[in-house]
């Protein structure tokens, strides 16, 4: 492929998945420094690539028209690989590479606990392997935050971030556990800061009200503002969620609590100091590769067994 030609990368959703494409884009730019690299995603996630110097253009799925399909791409890289993205990529004449999802291996692990997902590969690594000869560097993901995004937190603060939300119930640590952990941290001299988007406002408000001096910075999905303030935290306690990857992208140490999902799926915090807390003694884990609306067994021990005191003790050691 001529290094000066045009490349289109497709990943429409969701937040964490798109953040994890950033190392791949950087690798493409390193391999083809003269190439024009464009990215197609959904409007909700456009801030992930705001100001990213490795892209020539960002296109929004909701706004593509006939002119978009007249663009002459030599290479189309489909990291979504679903019916929607296939329909898009097949309208171009360029060479196509696509992400081969380990669907069968996930099915075996979730339903029969047969683990064919070892050794564990990160999602960026799996993405990169769909492009022959593409090598990732040793850096993590990145978010390029413009200088006009000013932090709401004071730089000298002793902050611990909480990201209690998730799209799926079985990926959410108990709200009352976040409250108990917050009180322990408050007694230890930390200030707890709550982060989340539109869907997390209620849970963030409820938790923050119960923790002394907590700060609630949940907002209307302002990713760059959230990331700016997360970058000022000593560490973040979170679920397996998009904001976990946002924290990693600004190099804030992450303690992630995994319930129904496991690290074999590739979504561990990438390229940052991190600790995953999970109950590996449960034969029912994982019960899903994306999360469920309720515990299939009814006991929810994957989350209930990760106690606030345990997290507090691990957090203290983690921050040393």
Concise synopsis of the structure shown:
Helices cover 30% and strands 15% of the residues. By secondary structure, it is of the alpha/beta class. A 6-stranded parallel β-sheet has the order 8-7-6-9-10-11, with helices on both faces.
Write the SSE topology.
Elements: E1 6-10, H1 15-19, H2 22-31, E2 36-41, E3 57-60, H3 66-69, E4 75-78, H4 83-89, E5 95-98, H5 103-112, H6 123-128, E6 159-163, H7 175-187, E7 191-194, H8 201-209, E8 215-216, H9 223-230, E9 235-239, H10 242-249, E10 254-257, E11 274-277, H11 301-304, H12 308-319
Parallel strand pairs: 1-2, 1-4, 2-3, 4-5, 6-7, 6-9, 7-8, 9-10, 10-11
Helix pairs in contact: 7-12
Descriptive report:
- With 320 residues, the protein is α/β, with parallel strands linked by helices.
- The chain has two domains: 123 residues, Glycogen Phosphorylase B (Rossmann fold, 3-Layer(aba) Sandwich), CATH 3.40.50; 161 residues, Glycogen Phosphorylase B (Rossmann fold, 3-Layer(aba) Sandwich), CATH 3.40.50.2000.
- It has twelve helices and eleven strands.
- A six-stranded parallel beta sheet has the order 8-7-6-9-10-11, sandwiched between helices. A five-stranded parallel beta sheet has the order 3-2-1-4-5, with helices on both faces.
- Strand 4, helix 4 and strand 5 form a beta-alpha-beta unit.
- Helix 7 crosses helix 12.
- The radius of gyration is 20 Å and the shape is globular.
- It starts with 5 loop residues before the first strand and ends with a helix.
């Amino acid at each position: 492929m001529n290094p000066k030609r045009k490349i289109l990368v497709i990943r429409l959703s969701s937040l964490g998945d798109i953040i994890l494409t950033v190392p791949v884009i950087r690798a493409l730019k390193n391999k083809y420094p003269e190439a024009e690299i464009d990215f197609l995603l959904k409007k909700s996630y456009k801030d992930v690539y705001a100001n990213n110097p490795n892209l020539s253009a960002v296109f929004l799925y909701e706004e593509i028209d006939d002119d978009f399909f007249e663009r002459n791409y030599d290479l189309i890289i489909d990291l979504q690989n679903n019916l929607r993205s296939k329909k898009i990529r097949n309208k171009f004449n360029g060479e196509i590479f696509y992400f081969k999802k380990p669907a069968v291996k996930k099915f075996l692990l979730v339903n029969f606990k047969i683990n064919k997902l070892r050794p564990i590969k990160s999602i960026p690594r799996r993405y990169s392997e769909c492009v022959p000869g593409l090598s990732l560097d040793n850096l993590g993901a990145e978010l390029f935050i413009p200088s006009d995004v000013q932090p709401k937190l004071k730089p000298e603060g002793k902050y611990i971030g909480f990201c209690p939300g998730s799209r799926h119930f079985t990926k959410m640590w108990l709200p009352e556990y976040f409250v108990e952990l917050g009180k322990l941290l408050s007694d230890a001299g930390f200030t707890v800061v709550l982060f989340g988007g539109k869907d997390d406002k209620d849970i963030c408000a409820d938790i923050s009200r119960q923790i002394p001096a907590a700060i609630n910075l949940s907002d209307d999905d302002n990713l760059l503002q959230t990331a700016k303030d997360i970058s000022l935290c000593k560490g973040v306690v979170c679920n397996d969620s998009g904001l976990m990857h946002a924290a990693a992208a600004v190099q804030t140490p992450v303690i992630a609590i995994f319930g129904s999902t496991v690290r074999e799926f590739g979504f561990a915090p990438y390229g940052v100091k991190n600790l995953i807390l999970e109950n590996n003694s449960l034969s029912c884990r994982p019960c899903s590769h994306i999360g469920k609306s309720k515990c299939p067994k009814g006991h929810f021990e994957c989350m209930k067994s990760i106690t606030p005191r345990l997290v507090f003790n691990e957090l203290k050691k983690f921050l040393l």
